[in-house]
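Weekly structure sync - notes
Attendees: PM, LS, DV (DV joined late)
Agenda: review two folding runs queued last week.

Item 1: First target. Sequence and structure tokens pasted below for the record.
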Amino acid sequence: MKLYILFFCILEAFAADVWEGDLCFGKSSSSTCTAGNRRTQHWTFDIVNQTCVNITTCLSDQTVFPTKLECQAACKYHTLCYQPRAVTGCAPQSKMPKPTWYFNRDTEQCEQDIICANVGNKFATKRECRNECPYGGIGHPCHLKKDEGHACKRSKPSTRWYWE
């Protein structure tokens, strides 16, 4: 029993460290523009829909990214792309299953499938899959060009590494 409790204490501590610093789960609040602030378009992670969405805001305490690709790169493990593949049986009265696409997180590619599910890691077209899961088909992250980044969030500079 003591081992069981110890396991959950360690798990809880680890989870708190991971989620606390995660930019994808930052504060999200609407802000009013003050004199001198102007509304600009940014991207933020929508936790409910598990996707990056475009917002227009006066930068307040929201976690925002300048581009959709930066948002997808930072939050890719929280998106639909990294959810398990939608697998369901078709009801006998349903229509024939349609070819669909899903993101295979092992190969990091969009792959075709035939399923009846209407939720989860499922896309109508390969293009939709690749737009939502940009790392599928564009190469390994180590082969991408160096990202110069943007201004430090929360005024805490951090060291970043890249592959040459």
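Item 2: Second target, run right after the first with the same settings.
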Amino acid sequence: MRSRHPWLNRLFSPHPQWVYKTGVMLLALLFSLLASFAISLYQVHNEIKHDVDYLDQIVSVAIKYGLEKPTLSEASVASGECSTDTIEQLEKLYVSHLLMSIPIVNLDKQKPYTYCSPFGVEQFEQRNFKNLLNTQLKGEMWRLAIVSLSTTPKHPPYLYGSNGQYGFLFPLRTEYLFLENDLDHQRSIRLSLPKENYTILEIGSLPNADRLYSNSVSSNYLPLTFESFVSTSRVLSKFKQNLWPVTTLLFMISLTILWLCVSYWHAKKEIALQKAVRDAQFFPYYQPIVDAQT
């Protein structure tokens, strides 16, 4: 018969009561810490998921509005100029789009970088366009680019989209009310077109070395992908916040469950021993005493 390892014999052999109590408390503490860390990870995941959902609604709806062609009067189109009537029509369209994306229209093919907008004439320069991309959106070829309309740092760059005549401008803000500014170094969100690997917007400045995990979510409205990154420091800070209320509660629950299990195990052994004695399953065994003088 194969004998057990001495450490196993020591583990399963009877121990003083304080050994079991200490073991139960250490196991309960370990379980509570692991469970609290898992809860912190889940909470951070939910936070950034909600951020992505809100951002998806804002960006996708704005681009969806921008892809709609404005209905202009024949006189405005035929004039080839950004008249007051055209500006008023674009203003109404801008308001109906909840001020999310700025509608623009090119009325002169000889001037491909001159557009009429709700604010008047917008004159672009080719050198101001960055990351030019031709892609198909809603069955039509569109040109996308990142363009700056002002040299002032406070003004954000814009996502420019145009099908040749009609287009839109969407401000690429990195600050929103639902995004905590103090978490910019703890999480980041990247918005891109997956097929072309074209980055439209990136929020947050999370270093690559501090990234704990990433999560990629497709937009519910357009062929866009939101890639979110969570830092180790963000999860640890949430874990520290949960130490007192959550970890303490989990420790008490784990301690109670483990103590009940150990008590049940001891009670089961005692009941089995009493039954064996009652059923006369034990036989006396006498060890003869051998004296060296005999």
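Discussion on item 2: The chain has a mean pLDDT of 77.
Action: LS to circulate a short write-up before next sync.
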